[in-house]
Structure formats: C-alpha cells, structure tokens
Specification:
The structure holds two protein chains of two kinds. Chain A is of the alpha/beta class. Chain A has two domains: 28-138 and 274-297, Response regulator (Rossmann fold), CATH 3.40.50; 140-271 and 306-343 and 377-394, Response regulator (Rossmann fold). Chain A is 38% helix and 18% strand. Chain A has helices at 2-23, 43-59, 77-88, 102-111, 125-128, 140-160, 180-196, 213-225, 239-247, 275-287, 318-331; strands spanning 32-35, 67-70, 93-96, 116-120, 133-138, 170-175, 201-206, 230-234, 251-254, 266-272, 294-297, 304-306, 343-344, 347-348, 353-354, 366-367, 369-370, 373-374, 392-394. Chain A has a seven-stranded mixed sheet, sandwiched between helices. In chain A, strands 2-1-3-4-5-11 form a six-stranded parallel sheet, with helices on both faces. In chain A, a hairpin with a 2-residue loop joins strand 17 (369-370) and strand 18 (373-374). The radius of gyration of chain A is 22 Å and the shape is globular. By secondary structure, chain B is mainly α. Chain B contains 16 helices and two strands. Chain B has helices at 2-8, 24-49, 51-55, 60-72, 75-100, 108-126, 132-161, 165-187, 211-230, 232-242, 244-249, 254-281, 292-302, 307-330, 336-357, 365-376, and strands at residues 14-18, 358-362. In chain B, 42% of the residues are buried. Classes of the chains: A alpha/beta, B mainly alpha. At the A-B interface, strand 2, helix 3, helix 4 and helix 7 of A face helix 5 and helix 14 of B.
Chain lengths: 397, 377
Amino acid sequence: MKKILALVLVLALCLTAAVSLAEGIAKEDIKLGVITLHDDKSTYDANFINAVKEACANLGLEEGKNYVIVSGIEESDACRDTALDLVDDGCNIIFADSFGHEDFLIEAAKEHPEVEFCHATGTKAHTENLANFHNAFASIYEGRYLAGVAAGLKLNEIKEAGKLKGEVPMIGYVGAFPYAEVKSGYTSFYLGARSVCPDVIMKVQFTGSWYDETGEKTAAEALIGLGADLISQHADSMGAPTACETAGIPDVSYNGSTVDACPNTFIVASRINWVPYFEYIIGQRIAGEPIDTDWTGTIATGSVELTAVNTNAAAEGTEAKLEEIKAKLESGEVKVFDTATFTKDGAPVESYLADVDTDAAFTPDTEAIKDGYFDESSLRSAPYFDIDIDGIEIVNN
Amino acid sequence: MSKEKKSEVREPLIHLSKRTTISPLKAWTIRLIAIVLGLLVCGLAAFLLIEKLQQNPERIGEFYQTFIRGSFSTSRKLWKYLKNTSVLLVISLGLTVAFRMRFWNIGGEGQTLVSVLGAIAVDFYLGGRIPEWILLILMFFAALLSGALWGIIPAVFRAKWGTNETLFTLMMNYVATYLVSYFLVIWVPSGSSSLGKLKYGKLPTLYNEQLLIVLTALFLTIALYIYLNYTKHGYEINVVGESVRTAQYVGISERKVIIRTMILSGAICGLAGYLIAAGSDQTVTTNSVGGQGFTGILVAWLGKFNPLAMILTAGLIQVLNQGAGQISQDFGVDNALPNVIVGIVLFFIIGSEFFINYEIHFRGHHSRANARKEAAK
C-alpha cells in the first residue's frame, strides 16, 4: 500500500513539474537567481553580472523582484545550499557561473524538478539526462583566434621595427589551470597569431587559480623576463594587464576591455557576451519551451565579441584585418582548428579522441576531427580541445 | 582644612576605574545595549551606503527583516543555519582548548583544511572499494589524525625550542592550502583542479542531513565544558595558561600539557574537517573551510573561552553572516557591503567588553556621591 502511495505521489509530482514547465510563466513572475564564484572585481564574474543586468533591463525585469545575484559562492556544498536558498526565495531559474559549481548544482536540480538550472562552462548536462539541468558556453575560440590575429599583427610591427627581444617573436600566456577550457583558448589564440606571423612561438605559465592577482602579475613578469614580446591571459584578475602596463609590453586581454587601466599597452580583448543566453533562457521559461541541454553561442549570433581596438597600442590596419577574418570565420571559410595549420610532435593530427563525456578517469571517448578540422564545442558546449601542439611550450604545469 | 585642599584638585571630566565585580545581569544588559546600538548604527550605515534605501526610506524596516530572513525564513534555511553554526562552533572549540592554555593557535583554518584533505584522500582512493560504513570510519580517523598532526608540529617546536606559535600556526595554514592545490593537480588528470563531488563517503541521514552534525557539535560542547572545568587535564591547562612557573612548582610538565592539548585542539578541528568532508561537501578545494578557522578565533574570544557561551557567540556570528548574505542578494549590493555591516555589529560587541571591565566616572561623580553620603548621615 505504502509503495503504491509513494508511486502515486511521485507521479503526481512529475506531472505537476511537467505541467508547470510546459505552461510557462508570466513575465512579471520570472525570478532568475544568479550564483557567481567571485564578485565583480573578477573580470570573469563581472562579465556575467553585467550581462544579467543588461539582459534583464532589455526585457524590462527588475532587480530584487525578477532577478537576484549572489556573489562569492564556493565550489562546494555552499553552491547547492545557495541554489536551494534561491528556490526558497521564489526563483524559478537558477544559474551558476563557475566550472566547479556543476556537481552541486546538479544535486539541487535533482531536488527541484520544477525549477530550471543553467550552468556555464560545465560538461555534464548531456550525460546527466535531467530535463531541468542545462550547460552553456560560447565558441570563444573564434574570438580568441581573432584576438590572436591582432597580436600577430602587433608582433610583425615590433619585428619590422627591429625591437624583438629574441630572434623570433614570442608570446607569453598566463593561464589558470591546464585543462581543455584553457588549452583550447590559448591554442586558438596562438593559431590566430601564427596565421599572420608565421614564426611566432608561445610560452604558457599556469597560476593554479582562477583569480590570483599577485600570482597572475608574477607569472606575466616571469614571462616578460623569459623574453615575451606580447602577453595574453586566461585568468580573471587585472594582474597580467597591470604587469604589462608597468613593463610597457603590449597585452591582449580577456573578458572585457582593460583600456582604462592600461591605456598604452591594451590592444584588444575577446569576450563572451552572455546577454543573448540570459535573454534566451528567460524567454524559454516565459514561453514554457525547453532550454537546450547544451547551448553554444557563436560569433555569428553575437555571443562572441571583440572589444574596441585601442589604436594607441595596436598595429596599423588591425581593425580592417579583423573584419576580414571575422567574415571568413562566420562564412566557414576559415576554420580555427584546421588540421593543416598545426602539428603535434612534428606530425599532423588526423584523428583524435576527445574526452567529451566526463567520467571519473577522464577517458577519451569521442572522435573530434572531421572534414580536416577539430570540431570544437559542437559535441557539447564546453571546450574539449586539449592537444599540446608544436610551437607552444608549457613553462610549468 | 584637608577637605578644602581636596576640592581644589581639579577632577578630570571623565575617568575610568576597573570594576572589581559586576553582576551577570548588568553585564548582559550592557552587551544587549551594545548589540541594539550596533544594529541601529548598521541601519544608519546601510542607509548612507545603499542607494535603494535612500530612494525608499520606508524599506529600512525591510532591511532588518532581511537580516532575520537570511537564517529563519524557511525550515530548510534554519537547518542550514544550524549546520553552519555547528561547524563553526566545533572549530572554535578546537581553538579554545589551546587558547585556555594561552597558546595562540591561529591555525584552525589549516588544521581543519588538512583534515578535509585527509578525509577526502581516503574517500578518493577507497570510495566504492570498501563498504560505506568502513569508509566513513576510516575518513573519520584520517581527518582527526591529519588535524592532530597539524596541531602537534607547532606544539613540539614551541615546547622544545620556544618558537612563536602564532606565526608558526599561521604559516601552517598556507602549507595546508598549497598541499590541497598539490593533491588536486595529482587527482584531477584533466588539469582543471576541480575534483567535483565524490560519490561515496556521505554521513547517514538522521531525520534530516543536518541533524547528525548539530548533535555532534552539541555533544562535543558539553564534553569539552566538562573536560575543561572538571578534570585534572582541564585544570593543568588553566595552570599552564596562568603561569608556567606555578605549573613547574606544582610539578606539571609544561611540555607535556602543551603537546597533549595541541593534539586535542588539532583533532577537534579535524572533527570539523570531517563534518565538512563527509557531512556536506564530499570534495576538497583550497577554500573548503572558507575562513571559518579565523572567524572561530572571534567566536572563542567573544565567548570568553567558555564552551557553553560559545554556542551563543557562534550562533550570533552565523546570524550576522547569513543575514548579510541575504541583504547583499535582496538589495542588489556588492557582498563587501554586508561585511562592513557585520563588522560594525562586532565592533560594538567587542567594545561592550570595555564597559563591562571598566566603570566610567564623570566629573562631580565623587562630590555628588559624598554629598549623598553626608546627607544620609
């Protein structure tokens, strides 16, 4: 009897959940809860916070009533606790922005099938099979490729002026952690630079943290000491850009423009514009339509952007060249990870099993090369390119 | 004649004298007044700093409600509040045994973090390979041993070579953080250093998942109260804390007491680490303890190293923290601002101890008191 009762209750719950999802919600009843790892001093989190505010302003939603932002939430059970608090406070869509939030957000999603849970940069939505848990990312490798083109042009200019520190142009790159998200980023940046500056080499130094102002500054200084003619970064503080401004080394930034703090060295920055995504998930919730399990924004849909080029620091003709390459990326004429453009251990890469379905041992499981290019971010939204290609040297691991 | 001379000496406008005794009622009244004043000043600060409040001054009442809503608006939030308070309390208790001995253990953060690491290491290597209950027991001992190890190292150095324990324990916090970073690099081959939630090693649920943690903290509080106040060990800790010379004179080995007590201090922090690892997170990050090792110092001091009083101080600080978080969320302000507000309240509470220890006399106080005495005669 008890079992039957339990079954009936579970069915009733599922039915209400399904009905409430399918019915949609009136716009004034939307409440989006946003969980961020750090606050807006981190360029990464600021990029999300500003996008939420912009998307909600566009849709006429009010802060406090229709959306709330909770900052500084650890990648631990604190994330689940916060997500459940937000459900208690009436949120019907919950979003978390950090890679390590994922497992804890999934737990919360299992407890509340009536609420939509969206997570940026995560990898597990397509294997968890939960109707209310979704991943999102953007093809930022396209943006980084473009930023790399700007870097390559600058290196050509330095070379022509005879001001290279070494024999060949060298990029120094400050990365957070040595995994696919960062590797895909710096490889696309490097390939962009090499497409216009063929003899460029790159050295990468990892900091082991997403936000470590001192560590990022020290890493940038170390790379400048190793002979870097230009610096770029994939870590979230102002550490690397400020080190560049002090040393007078050109910098290609990430997440947003750093021109105010670095007027003489900032060239350009690539960033993901999350506004289309927030508008999308809110729109789907209002309409009662399902949200994509894996959503990948692209350069063509306005999710990947470059900031304005700082003509003080950039090489002449940068803007025009970027327009040209951008059009080629959009049309598909240029592929970022074209296997003709890179080698590993001296040999071309014709086949590569990528770790697309996350498991505890991170086993490679899916062929990612098709039609002569590495097919990034289409098998799932988060990047999975993690090949160590020739020309890039990792200084520390 | 002599009386006239006295009145010529100019009395200062305000002077202080140390109180010899104060009734508990009076002391608690002073504390209560301090909290109320602190909250009023908070309201004022919030009004000056939060734009939304300036636009709608009537929302100031909502400001105080929000403070309470952070911990008590739903039963789930209440349980979360009790769980967080319990973990904070256990860490504070670990620090208190050392503080009683005037051993300034600033390393609660590291002792707790390293025990989270110890427990998670067992979980990582053995989870799923042995029965869950054995796993949980092994994790328990791993956590306690790691915490005790992190406590004994500075204790031995202090006992043998007289090193400064404050700097030593502080330094051990950083060692613990980097140790976690190191293991995360080894354990996560993808390179993200994000271990994720492990599948095994979760404490069983009694009624709800927080109850066991809360009961553990309560039991420990009572046990430590008895240990510190009614046992020989507790007495020895106090003697070493009051005067090493006295301890030597009555034949208490200072070294032995320091090392024994720091093992206990570290192991209690280890228990807190276990509660974090097996009770909630099932993962470890460099920030698993999230500064509670430092907040615990405040809890212990405010509770005057009395385990029972620390239930109140831990509870108060947790209300302030969760309330501050709720304010940041509901009023759409940066999370630094609520911390300022918490700081103001704590400042008032700490300040109130001054008025409990000292009495303030204003000019004319003596002459009026004398006059009253004269009149009474």
